[in-house]
Amino acid sequence: MGLLRHSFKPQGALHLLSNIILFSSLLSGSAAQDDSTRLRDCLSGSSILASLVTFSDATNWENVTSPWSLRFNPEPAAVVVPRTKDEVAAALACAVNAGVKVSPLNGGHSYGAYGLGGVDGALVINMERFTETSFDEATGLFTYGGGSRVGPTATWLWENHGRHFPHVRANWVGLSGSSIGGGFGTTSRFLGTPMDNLDSVEVMLYNGTVVTASRKENPDLFFVIQGAGSSYGILLSLTTRTWKPEYELVTNFTISLGDVDIDTGVQALMDIQDWAMTEAPDTFALRWQLAGEWNGSGYFYGNPDDFAPLFAGLVERLPNTTVTTTSTQDFWSMENFAAPLLNGTADTFPPRSMYLQALVLRSDQPLTFESAKALYQHTTLAFNRTDMTKFGFLDLWGGVSRDVDDSAQAMAYANNQWLIRWEGRLANGLSEWPADGIEYMQAGFRPFQDQLKKEGVPLRGFVNYRDTELTEEEWSVRLYGENYEKMKGIKTEMDPMGVFDTHAQSIRSS
C-alpha cells in the first residue's frame, strides 16, 4: 500500500483541517456540549449547508429518516442532502470536528438500514442529488452519480444509447450500493455482476479529498470498494462497462414440475444443476423458487433459434408432470418484465419488516441431494407461520464467475454456482415483528447449513444479502474470506479516524 494519488480536491477539502481547528477553538470553551450539539452548530451555522440539513425537530423528519427495512429504526443525528462535492466535504468537516460517524445513503434498501447508520447518532449524507450521467461512445464506458437508482439510470442509457449494464432486479434500488455489493442480475451469468463491470470509482475520503480508484489507479482503494465501499468513503460517481445486445429478442421461460413429492423435486433440481454445469451456455439465466411449488423461470440471451433444442435438452431430464411456457420479447421489454417498471418512477418494493439469510455455493462444491433436501424440507415445506410469509429462491450463477479470483476484490465470490436466499416477511396487516421470528427462520435454515458443514462446504455469503444477525467472526469469513485482514489494513490507511464505522458490519482498522 502506497500513498493515494489524488484526482481532485474540492474547496471544502482544501480547508478541512483549518475548519476543524477553527470549530474546535470556537467550541473549546463549551466542553459540556455533546457531539450532536457540536454537529448541529456546525451544520446549521454553515452558509452552504444550513438549507440542506434536516434535524429531528423538523416536521418532515420521519419521512427523511424512514427505513426501508422496518425491523430497524436507527435515529440519525442529522441528514444532509448535498448538491456539490464542496457541500459533501463541508458536511464531512462538521462530522469529523464533532466526532460523529458518517453514513453515506444511496437508495436506502439495506436489509439492516445501514444507509441510515444502522445505529443511532450518525450523520447521514443522502446522495440523492448526485445523479448526473454521461456516456463515452469511443470506449463504451458509462458514468453515473453516486446517488443514482437502478431504473432511471438503466432507462437513460438504453433510451439514449441502446446499451445495457448488468444490474439487480429492482427498479428503485440504489445503483451504487447494489453494484459494490455484488448486484447479481439476469445478465450476470454472461456479462458478470455490476461489480465485475466497474471500471473506476470517484470517492471522497474522510478528510474531504477526492480520489479516483480503479484496477490501475489507487488499486487498494478499488479493491475494498468492491464489497465494502461505504466503510471507506463516499461514492461520488462510478464508471462501468456497457454492452449492446447481440440479438434483438430475448426468450423468457417458465418450468413447473407439478404436484411432486420432495424426493422427486430435489432430484429434478439435481438434474437441473447437472445440465446447467455441463450443457447450459452462459447466456441462460434461471431462478428456481424456494418458497412455493417446484418451479422456476428464466431468460435466454443467446440466438433465439438455438433456444428450442437447448431447452428441450433440459426438460427431457425432468419429471413427465413438468409443464413449461416460453415467450419472446425485444430486449428492453424483457428488461421491464424481469425488473418490473424498470422505466417507472416509483419503488416497486415498498418498505417491509423481514429477516433474510443467504448462502452461496461454488461450482466445486455444489448442491448434493442431501443438502438440497435439507434445504427444502426444513424451510419452505416446514414453514407454518401465519404472522409471517415466506420468500426465497436459488439463482443459478456460474458462467463467467469462473474467471473471478477471490483475491482480486474484497468480496470473495470466485466460481459461484448458486445464490440461495431464504427470507421471512411480516404478514400483511401486522405491524410488529414476532419476538421469535428470527430464531424461527434461523431454525429452518440451520439443517441446510449443518449438512453443508458435514460435507466440508464452507459457509459463504453475499454482501447485498447481509445476514444482520451474524457475528463479526461469521460475516467476515462468509463475505470476505482471506481478504478480511487486508481490508482492515487498508482501512487504517484510508480512514484512520474510523469516520465511516457506523454499523455492526462496517470494516474497522486492524
From TrEMBL:
Listed Gene3D superfamilies: 3.30.465.10, 3.40.462.20
A Pfam family this chain is assigned to: BBE
Keyword Signal: yes
Keyword set, alphabetical order: FAD, Flavoprotein, Oxidoreductase, Signal
InterPro entries: BBE, FAD-bd_PCMH, FAD-bd_PCMH-like_sf, FAD-bd_PCMH_sub2, FAD-linked_Oxidoreductase, Oxid_FAD_bind_N
Cofactor(s) needed: FAD
Presence of the UniProt keyword Flavoprotein in the record: yes
Family according to the record: Belongs to the oxygen-dependent FAD-linked oxidoreductase family.
Protein's name in the database: Berberine-like protein
Species: Stemphylium lycopersici (Tomato gray leaf spot disease fungus)
